[in-house]
Write a structure and sequence with these properties.
By secondary structure, this protein is α/β, with parallel strands linked by helices. The protein has a single domain, classed as Aldolase class I (TIM Barrel), CATH 3.20.20.70. Helix content is 48%, strand content 16%. The protein has an eight-stranded parallel β-barrel with strand order 1-2-3-4-5-6-7-8, surrounded by five helices. It binds cytidine-5'-monophosphate (C5P). The site of cytidine-5'-monophosphate (C5P) has 13 residues, from strand 8.
């Protein structure tokens, strides 16, 4: 796997035309793009067709969360769009995730099924207030990651700081999709626990999700090249 195949660019734009402009500017430098709720809804889903027509691979970040039947129906439609990966909330439970895996595998074998554990916007206090639990965020996240794996999901979204722990506990095949990545030359923005692309790879991240260091950069193509170079340095260090 080369560096380019590890980088997922977050298309966090409200307007499809702005997303298209970036994809065009990057030409063949990048292959993987993340589409979230804002862009998906605002483009009436058309961004998916555009990216596919241009041979790009898609992480459909819609974070499904509903009862098993409803979620698996939505999952079937995501899989039919032939996206590279999409996600569901692990808090939907093991029954829901198992049903998603079963239904999607019946029709499509290639989309990676990724679980979201605890949203990073939660603080320890808010977790206690919301779930009436004494468990820490890390304990809850690890439990949800384990349930995801047991349900047959392919991986989780996690911080680069947790990727190693996930790999140690759940195996190297269980994919880690990591936002919170910042090269040293980029602004941290609102991300709290960041890691450089090189260190993120060394620490066990399979896919790096990077937005603003590329999308807000005056030279996005150069930013992508620098990030891929760092990823490749990390891959070499990891192998040796
Ligand atoms: O601009 P930036 O690189 O911070 O973008 C990171 C992307 O990853 C955004 O689309 C953000 O919503 C997403 N994300 C995140 N933290 C999570 C889950 C997703 O930053 N825990």
């Amino acid at each position: 796997m080369n560096g380019k195949d590890r980088l997922i660019i977050a298309l966090d734009f409200p307007k499809m035309e702005d997303a298209v402009k970036l994809v065009e500017k990057l030409e063949n430098e990048a292959t993987f793009y993340k589409v979230g709720l804002e862009l998906f809804l605002n483009s009436n889903g058309e961004i998916i067709k555009y990216l596919k027509d241009n041979n790009k691979k898609i992480f459909l970040d819609l974070k499904f969360h509903d009862i098993p039947n409803t979620t698996s129906m939505a999952a079937i439609f995501a899989a039919k769009k032939d996206v590279f990966m999409f996600n569901v909330h692990a808090t939907g439970g093991k029954k829901m995730m198992t049903k998603v895996v079963e239904e999607v595998r019946k029709i499509n074998n290639s989309s990676l099924l990724i679980a979201v554990t605890i949203l990073t916007s939660f603080s320890e206090e808010e977790i206690k207030e919301t779930f009436k639990t004494k468990a820490s965020i890390q304990e809850l996240a690890m439990n949800l990651a384990t349930l995801s794996k047991e349900s047959g999901m392919n991986g989780i979204v996690c911080s680069p700081w947790e990727a190693n722990l996930i790999k140690e506990n759940l195996g190297d095949d269980f994919k880690t999709v990591c936002p919170g990545v910042r090269p040293l030359w980029a602004a941290t923005n609102d991300q709290q626990r960041i890691m450089t692309p090189k260190n993120a790879i060394i620490n066990g991240c399979d896919f790096l999700v990077v937005g603003r260091p590329i999308t807000k950069n005056e030279d996005p193509k150069k930013a992508v090249k620098l990030i891929i170079k760092e990823i490749e340095e990390g891959l070499i260090l990891k192998i040796n």
